[in-house]
Amino acid sequence: MASCKHQFMTWMFAVLGGWFLAYGASAYAHPVDAVEDNAVAEDSDKPAPPPETVPDAAQSAKPVALNPDDVNTGGAGDLLLAPTRVVLDGHARAAEIMLNNKGYKEATYRITFTHVKMDDNGRYTPVDDKVASDPALKFADKVLRYSPHQVTLKPGETQVVKVMARPSEGLAEGEYCSHLMFMAVPDASMGEDVEATKPADGKISVHLIPIYGVSIPVIVRHGTLEAQAKMGNVRLSGKNILLTIARSGNKSVYGDVIATEAGSNKVVGQLRGIAVLATNDRRNLSLPLTAPAKGTLTIEYRERAEDGGKVLDKTSITM
């Protein structure tokens, strides 16, 4: 009886610990998207915290790696993904996501859709199922299919997850987005019998087991869509340029924000993978200056090269 009770307690702590790490700590301070976006600025003149590095779409998203000395949990946090953003439309109704276990131990991942929303500062928060049923939020999981729903990868092993868009008849035009979550499944051997491991002094200690997860956005575009982006409210704050990207239209915009010295190609600051979702009309950014800058700076919001490289908007600021 005591053994069963301890197994239940261990499971509960694993779930709660994983929930804290996935939702309370960093899973949606992403990005993302933990993976997609990387810049946050408040509406005040105070500089925002430095952005986290976000991998290119062709690179991989990597959660915090586990300590090799942590024998029972190795491998769970060493999942690499590519691409880190999927867009499905009339030209491409299916895509493949490559998963690779870069850890030293076999790991299992459960794959599910999750609902999150972004605020004006690029921060993600989870949305419960009741709220997610609101059609205005345009979540995409109802028109998406994927396989498999769970994978087990040996060290160094790679597997493909296939995603397909299947818009229902009569689906309203628009852009729909959900996040595909890859959540590590704890090793069954983590549970221990409290009587077998109880110290001589009779005291019991609790070991919290973190559950790692990473999510990527999957976007479905249906119908004739367009969007425009306009940068404004540009000002200098310390070693950061604060600005706002305003979006109009019926789809998201996505690209890099690059600052260069006017008349030259010298890059003095950039933010990669910046999205303003179709459900948001603006995004506040803090662009760190990573090199000495003087005179007038040109700031461009440009599509990624794989999306065409179009300049979405351009502005300037005098130092």
Q: Give the overall form.
A: globular
CATH superfamily of the largest domain: Immunoglobulins
Domain count: the total is 2
Which segments are poorly predicted (pLDDT under 50) over 5 or more consecutive residues? 1-76
Indicate the proportion of strand residues: 35-45%
Distance between the termini: 71 Å
Query: In angstroms, what is the radius of gyration?
Result: 22 Å
The largest sheet is: 5 strands, mixed
CATH fold name of the largest domain: Immunoglobulin-like
Average pLDDT level: 77
What is the structural class?
A: mainly beta
Q: Briefly, what CATH class of the largest domain? A: Mainly Beta
Strand order of the largest sheet: 2-11-10-4-8
Q: What's the architecture of the largest domain in CATH terms?
A: Sandwich
Explain what the structure shows.
The chain has 319 residues and is mainly beta. The chain has 2 domains: 2-222, Sandwich (Immunoglobulin-like); 227-318, Immunoglobulin-like, CATH 2.60.40.10. It has 3 helices and 18 strands. The strands form 5 sheets. A 5-stranded mixed beta sheet has the order 2-11-10-4-8, with no helix packed on it. A 4-stranded antiparallel beta sheet has the order 1-3-9-7, with no helix packed on it. The protein has a 4-stranded antiparallel beta sheet with strand order 15-14-17-18, with no helix packed on it. The longest helix has 24 residues, at 2-25. The chain starts with a helix and ends with a strand.
